[in-house]
Here is the input.
Amino acid sequence: MLFVTLLKALPGKYTDAIRLFKNPKIPEGIKIQEFLGLFGEFDCIIVFEGPDEERAAEFVVQFGNLADPKTLLAFPVDKFKWTK
Here is the structure.
């Protein structure tokens, strides 16, 4: 499964958040595709693969004390069943 997480550092936690973004703990079964810094509303985006939602949550929860994570399940647009 493919996941996308957007991270926004919490007020007053920016330095610690960036430190964590640079050195996250990656659980077994998680494969990072991209981990990018952003200019704009969010500070980082992570595109990663995982076997299931439980493992994805295990990875993302580490950011919760320093950032506001928003995680989405992603899939190729050609898999959309409601369009041709």
The first helix runs from residue 14 to 22. The chain has two helices and four strands.
